[in-house]
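In the design runs reported in the main text, the only information available to the sequence generator was the tokenized backbone. The following block is the verbatim input for one such run; it is reproduced so that readers can re-run the procedure and compare outputs position by position.
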């Protein structure tokens, strides 16, 4: 095998490895981590409903989705605009959503 052939083969292997790594990273952050978070939130909300800590008739699936969207949105905004969402504001946003669930 010539040096040129070896170089092309190595380049193709590196390219394939990079694509594989990108695919792995993309798969890491998709359904599994979000599904685990969603399941935990749903479990906590169901428990709160059983304990009478949230109003009757609250749609647990809908509220779970609201919380996931809030968490994702605050996380994205915090990364993009560090000064726009200080910790107190994050707590205030969460409290406002949770207060709407209380009796």
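Verbatim output:
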């Amino acid at each position: 095998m010539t040096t040129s052939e070896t170089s092309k083969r190595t380049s193709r292997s590196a390219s394939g490895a990079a694509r594989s790594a990108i695919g792995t990273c993309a798969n890491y952050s998709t359904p599994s981590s979000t599904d685990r978070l969603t399941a935990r939130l749903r479990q906590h909300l169901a428990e709160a409903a059983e304990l009478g800590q949230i109003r009757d008739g609250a749609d647990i699936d809908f509220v779970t989705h609201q919380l996931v969207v809030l968490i994702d949105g605050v996380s994205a905004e915090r990364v993009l605009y560090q000064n726009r969402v200080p910790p107190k504001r994050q707590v205030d946003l969460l409290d406002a959503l949770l207060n709407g669930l209380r009796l």
